[in-house]
Model the fold of this input.
Amino acid sequence: MPGAAGLLLALLLSGGLGGGQEQQPQAHQQRGLFPAVLNLASNALITTNATCGEKGPEMYCKLVEHVPGQPVRNPQCRICNQNSSNPYQRHPITNAIDGKNTWWQSPSIKNGIEYHYVTITLDLQQVFQIAYVIVKAANSPRPGNWILERSLDDVEYKPWQYHAVTDTECLTLYNIHPRTGPPSYAKDDEVICTSFYSKIHPLENGEIHISLINGRPSADDPSPELLEFTSARYIRLRFQRIRTLNADLMMFAHKDPREIDPIVTRRYYYSVKDISVGGMCICYGHARACPLDPVTNKSRCECEHNTCGDSCDQCCPGFHQKPWRAGTFLTKTECEACNCHGKAEECYYDENVARRNLSLNIHGKYIGGGVCVNCTQNTAGINCETCIDGFFRPKGVSPNYPRPCQPCHCDPIGSLNDVCVKDEKRTQRGLAPGSCHCKPGFRGVSCDRCARGYTGYPDCKPCNCSGAGSTNEDPCFGPCHCKENVEGGDCSRCKSSFFNLQEENHKGCDECFCSGVSNRCQSSYWTYGHIKDMSGWYLTDLSGHVRVSPQQDDSEPPQQVSIRSVEAQRSLPQRYYWSAPAVYLGNKLTAAGGQLTFTISYDFEEEEEDTERVLQIMVILEGSDLRISTAQDEVYLQPYEEHIHALSLKEELFTIHGTNFPVSRREFMTVLANVKRVLIQITYSLGMDATF
Ligand SMILES: *[C@@H]1O[C@H](CO)[C@@H](O)[C@H](O)[C@H]1NC(C)=O
Ligand SMILES: *[C@@H]1O[C@H](CO)[C@@H](O)[C@H](O)[C@H]1NC(C)=O
Ligand SMILES: *[C@@H]1O[C@H](CO)[C@@H](O)[C@H](O)[C@H]1NC(C)=O
Ligand SMILES: *[C@@H]1O[C@H](CO)[C@@H](O)[C@H](O)[C@H]1NC(C)=O
Ligand SMILES: *[C@@H]1O[C@H](CO)[C@@H](O)[C@H](O)[C@H]1NC(C)=O
Ligand SMILES: *[C@@H]1O[C@H](CO)[C@@H](O)[C@H](O)[C@H]1NC(C)=O
Done:
């Protein structure tokens, strides 16, 4: 954009009782959502590799009836038999999770010392976050040495907690320094070894409480490590030594097993009355409930926050403006809808698009990376905001409209291709949407005519005189009469000290303004370029006596200023104007021929209707006792939609303010030589048919 002097101004106007910042719905719930902790064992599949009486009736005796130091007196021994019709003789592993007073029991070591090694496995049938495991013994002491393990796949198991009869055995058996006293945890994923729950007493009905979340450092807002540590589908209790009385232990060590009184060995077995596994579905902070699906027997999160999937682990279709994120105990996250202007159901997140601020969100800001998929109705683009090749969206037609794209009509002879200018944002070289790209010598919206200076459609051969530089009514008929600032036999050259030959320029070329230093000039001027800093703008009336400061956005420096219309009207009941800061003032001669560019949008409060408004835009320049202004430009704008307004700084676009008198080039340059004020007036009204 050579010769461009752009200034970027985002004006946020709000109508009626409008509010600038408050229109974002207040987030009342700032925490993630989590389902309740339930006992997952009752719905688990449970197995073990050794059960009392599974190989036929077996006698066992109870340790509790043995009084140490006294002769065994009439020990009450009983039978277990998995095949028995008497339920009191059956002790299957399912008893451990049936919620009743029944229990599971392992074979006693009368059957062999290998029955110290018994494993119980629970399959929760899906991965859960486990908070605790509670094991209750029945008619035996709690297990002595054992490992609680977790797994996601039933192949690889990792330890959760080791238990040993003595602290020494933590080291000798498991190579872990014992945690003495009641279990405590220094790290989120620390695996401890404890003898706390392996005491011989109580001889019956002892309990083991293993906490996996509470008591760990990040329990209040679990860290990723803690979440990983507590995730499990399979839980394994790997028993490795039955707890025995010390006297009996000595006997086992020194005697041939066959010589040991079977009354003694029949007293040693494992028993489990109940296993509780407290845990919850993994819904990543996006569900407050997780009911069991009776068909699949699986729990499914009831996802909120626009998340989808069995565990809310992805954004729902059409909600990919921002990447999916897990919520935590303390912070809520949500998936945000893509803005496809109603032309697509689905979108995906593209980090590259997000980084380059190319995706418009539903609040009208270029924040996020949602890319719409399969835009319908001949629309295309990241937000379905433009058209497919061969179609265009006419000026004033919003992307929100139904069927906004119309077919291009490009003359096959005069056009380079079938593709026309698709929309206002993609306007090139002043061509309006719908304009075709013409071959040299052709012109017209459809390129179905010869350009001035060319003759004989469909051939369109060049004429003898330049169409841009000659005043000949028909440049094809000589002799050539050059425009005032043009020379050459065919009138195709600017005179010395002039530049920028344009057909629309009735003098052909613009005069250089080089402050007397030089009378040579080039066609390119850079002045203040892209000014992103919006500080210093204020609102005022035409007299300039009242100044009102707008709200600035959060960026540093502010890139956007806005005003609520009620606020503005309180101080400025008449027409009000946006007034530019000093950087735009003073000698701006070099901006002549360039462009003044700014961006406008507005939003509204919830109660108001989400309808399109007509904005009228006028730019006023003041300097050297002259006030000149542009005609009012009408723009149809949806809430949150952005309009980029580009004004060419050319005298023919201005009149003396308040009159229809044209501005001469001298007057225009006089103003630019010492700009005192730059004012932008924006008025608006509701609806398409509004009149002023
Ligand atoms: C248990 O009973 C089934 C038939 O009911 C029989 O096949 C099986 O051998 C019995 N098991 C034992 C250990 O007696
Ligand atoms: C039970 O399985 C474990 C492996 O998990 C094994 O070490 C143990 O010997 C088995 N016990 C019996 C009695 O088969
Ligand atoms: C679900 O569980 C019920 C009761 O536990 C059982 O009867 C049913 O067969 C199970 N269905 C499936 C699909 O596993
Ligand atoms: C995108 O916008 C942010 C502010 O919203 C800004 O800091 C950043 O520079 C912009 N990036 C590009 C590539 O324009
Ligand atoms: C988009 O369209 C293509 C081709 O018609 C189709 O294969 C694909 O499934 C569509 N995608 C979506 C998300 O609808
Ligand atoms: C164009 O100029 C050439 C000579 O340069 C002349 O022969 C010819 O007649 C001119 N054509 C017209 C249409 O004036």
